C-alpha cells in the first residue's frame, strides 16, 4: 500500500534527485580539470542542484495545476542538462572520472526524467482526503416535539460553539494568509535570480558593471525592455493578490582562496605574488554574489542569495604557423600566421613548431586576436598540445589590452620575468585575471627550451586559450 504524500520529501523522484545531485557535486565535479571551472563544472553544479529544488518548490504549488507543472517541466529540463553534462564528462574527461560511476549517474537521471514526466501527467489523479460525510440529527432534534426551552438552549449552545470556533479559526486564517505571502515573496525572489542568471549568460558586463556601486547594501532592480532586462538603481514594487511587495537585489564582488584558484571565501584579499594556485586570497572578477530581498507590510521580508559566474566559454586555437611571420593583426579568426619569431622552425613539419637546429631556446609571438567584445573578456586558461621530451620545457606569457598599440607580456605574478608553465601537454594553466580581465584583445608569446645537451626540442602542435565574453 502506497504511503500518503504529505511533503515533497515523500516523493521518490525528489529523494532520487537529491541523492544523485550530492554524488555529482562530490564525486564528479571535483575531479574535472580546472579549465572547466567556468563551463562544465559550473553548469553541472547549477543544473544538478536545481532538480530537487524545483521539485520542492513545485510541490508548494501542487494545488495550482499550471504552476506545479511549470516547475516539473523546469526540473525535467535541468535533469536533461545534467545528463548531457555527464555524457560530456565521459567523452572528454574519462581519464579524470570513474567511468562506471558516471554511467550509473546518467542512468539515474534517465529514471528521474521518466519519473518527472509521469508525475506531471498523473498529478491530477492524486486526490486529497475528503472529510467523511457527517449526517447529523439536528433536523430530528428540531422536530415538532421540541419545546421552546429546548430550542432556546440549543441556540445558546450554538452561539457558544460558534464563538469558540471563530476564536480558533481567525489565527488559522491569518497563518494561512501569511504562508501565502511567503510563497509569493519566494516566487518573486526566485524570478529575479532566474532573470539575472539569464542576463549573466547573455552579457556578463551587465552584472559586473551595474549603474552604481556594488556591495552588500547596494540596491538594484530589473526593468523589462523590448528584448531583455536592464538593471537600474533602487527598488521596485508590485501588487500580487492585493498585497504590495517591494523587491531589489544587491551585487557583491567575491574572493577565492589559493589566489583565485579555489573555493569562495569571505576573507579579505591578500597578497598573491605568485599568481593563481599560490597561498593567498584574490578577487574573482568572474563570480558575483547576488542577494534578492522581498519586503511587504508588517515588516516582513525574505532574502535569497546565489553566486553567478561568467559561464560562457570560447576558445582560441592555433594549429598551424606555416604561413609565416609579419602578421600583427588584429585578426578575428585563427589562421596559419604569426607576428614574429626567433630560432623557431615552423616549416619542417606543417602544423607544428620546434626549436631551430640545435639551439638552446626559441620564441614566437602570436598575432593580436580581436574578441570583438567591446567591454572586454576574461582570459581564463592556456594549454598546449604536442610532445615534450625529458629535460625540455614549454612556457608562455600573455598580453591583453583594450588597444592594439600597447602590449605587456606577463607571467602569473603580473611581471615580465615569470612564465605560465604547464607541467605537460594537455594540462591547462589558469591565467591571472587580475591582469587579463575585461580586455578586448589578447595575444601570447611562447618560449621553447631544449634539453641540457641541446639535442631534443619540444614540439608544439596546438596552442589553446580559453576565454569568456
Descriptive tags:
de novo design (two linked rop proteins), 19 strands, 469 residues, Jelly Rolls, 3 domains, single chain, alpha+beta, 8 helices, 5-stranded antiparallel beta sheet
What are the low-pLDDT stretches, counting only 5+ consecutive residues below 50? Answer: 127-145
Beta-strand percentage range: 25-35%
Spell out the helices and strands N to C.
HHHHHHHEEEEHEEEEEEEEEEEEEEE
Straight-line N-to-C gap: 55 Å
Structural class: alpha+beta
Summarize the structure.
The chain is an alpha+beta fold and 469 residues long. It folds into three domains: 1-127, Up-down Bundle (de novo design (two linked rop proteins)); 165-311, no CATH class; 314-468, Jelly Rolls, CATH 2.60.120. 33% of the residues lie in helices and 26% in strands.
Structure commentary:
By secondary structure, this protein is of the alpha+beta class. It folds into 3 domains: 1-127, 23S rRNA-intervening sequence (de novo design (two linked rop proteins), Up-down Bundle), CATH 1.20.1440; 165-311, no CATH class; 314-468, Jelly Rolls (Sandwich), CATH 2.60.120. The chain is built from 8 helices and 19 strands. Strands 3, 4, 5, 6 and 7 form a 5-stranded antiparallel beta sheet that branches. β3 and β4 (243-256) form a beta hairpin. α1 runs antiparallel to α2 (40-59), α2 (40-59) runs antiparallel to α3 and α3 (65-92) packs antiparallel against α4 (99-122). It is elongated, with a radius of gyration of 31 Å.
Amino acid at each position: 500500500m502506497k504511503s500518503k504524500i504529505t511533503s515533497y520529501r515523500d516523493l521518490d523522484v525528489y529523494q532520487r534527485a537529491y541523492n544523485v545531485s550530492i554524488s555529482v557535486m562530490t564525486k564528479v565535479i571535483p575531479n574535472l580539470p580546472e579549465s572547466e571551472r567556468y563551463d562544465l563544472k559550473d553548469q553541472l553544479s547549477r543544473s544538478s542542484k536545481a532538480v530537487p529544488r524545483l521539485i520542492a518548490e513545485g510541490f508548494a504549488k501542487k494545488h495550482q495545476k499550471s504552476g506545479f507543472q511549470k516547475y516539473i517541466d523546469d526540473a525535467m529540463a535541468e535533469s536533461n542538462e545534467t545528463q548531457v553534462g555527464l555524457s560530456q564528462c565521459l567523452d572528454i574527461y574519462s581519464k579524470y572520472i570513474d567511468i562506471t560511476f558516471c554511467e550509473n549517474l546518467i542512468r539515474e537521471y534517465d529514471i528521474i526524467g521518466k519519473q518527472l514526466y509521469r508525475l506531471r501527467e498523473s498529478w491530477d489523479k492524486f486526490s486529497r482526503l475528503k472529510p467523511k460525510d457527517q449526517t447529523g440529527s439536528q433536523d430530528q432534534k428540531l422536530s415538532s416535539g421540541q419545546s421552546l426551552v429546548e430550542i432556546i438552549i440549543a441556540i445558546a449552545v450554538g452561539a457558544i460553539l460558534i464563538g469558540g470556533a471563530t476564536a480558533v479559526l481567525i489565527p488559522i486564517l491569518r497563518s494561512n494568509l501569511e504562508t501565502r505571502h511567503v510563497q509569493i515573496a519566494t516566487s518573486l525572489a526566485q524570478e529575479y535570480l532566474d532573470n539575472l542568471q539569464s542576463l549573466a549568460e547573455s552579457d556578463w558586463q551587465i552584472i559586473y558593471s551595474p549603474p552604481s556601486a556594488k556591495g552588500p547594501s547596494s540596491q538594484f532592480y530589473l526593468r523589462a525592455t523590448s528584448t531583455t532586462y536592464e538593471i537600474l538603481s533602487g527598488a521596485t514594487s508590485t501588487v500580487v493578490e492585493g498585497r504590495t511587495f517591494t523587491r531589489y537585489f544587491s551585487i557583491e564582488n567575491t574572493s577565492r582562496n589559493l589566489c583565485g584558484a579555489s573555493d569562495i571565501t569571505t576573507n579579505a584579499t591578500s597578497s598573491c605574488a605568485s599568481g593563481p594556485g599560490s597561498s593567498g586570497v584574490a578577487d574573482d572578477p568572474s563570480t558575483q554574489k547576488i542577494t534578492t530581498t522581498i519586503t511587504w507590510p508588517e515588516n516582513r521580508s525574505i532574502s535569497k542569495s546565489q553566486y553567478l559566474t561568467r559561464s560562457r566559454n570560447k576558445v582560441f586555437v592555433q594549429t598551424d604557423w606555416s604561413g609565416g611571420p609579419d602578421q600583427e593583426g588584429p585578426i578575428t579568426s585563427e589562421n596559419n600566421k604569426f607576428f614574429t619569431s626567433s630560432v623557431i622552425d615552423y616549416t619542417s613539419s606543417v602544423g607544428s613548431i620546434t626549436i631551430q637546429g640545435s639551439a638552446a631556446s626559441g620564441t614566437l609571438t602570436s598575432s593580436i586576436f580581436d574578441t570583438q567584445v567591446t567591454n572586454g573578456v576574461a582570459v581564463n586558461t592556456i594549454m598546449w598540445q604536442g610532445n615534450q621530451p625529458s629535460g625540455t620545457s614549454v612556457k608562455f606569457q600573455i598580453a591583453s589590452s583594450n588597444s592594439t598599440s600597447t602590449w605587456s607580456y606577463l607571467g602569473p605574478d603580473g611581471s615580465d620575468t615569470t612564465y605560465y608553465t604547464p607541467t605537460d601537454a594537455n594540462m591547462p594553466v589558469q591565467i591571472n585575471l587580475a591582469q587579463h580581465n575585461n580586455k578586448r584583445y589578447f595575444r601570447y608569446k611562447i618560449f621553447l627550451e631544449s634539453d641540457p645537451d641541446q639535442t631534443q626540442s619540444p614540439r608544439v602542435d596546438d596552442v589553446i586559450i580559453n576565454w569568456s565574453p
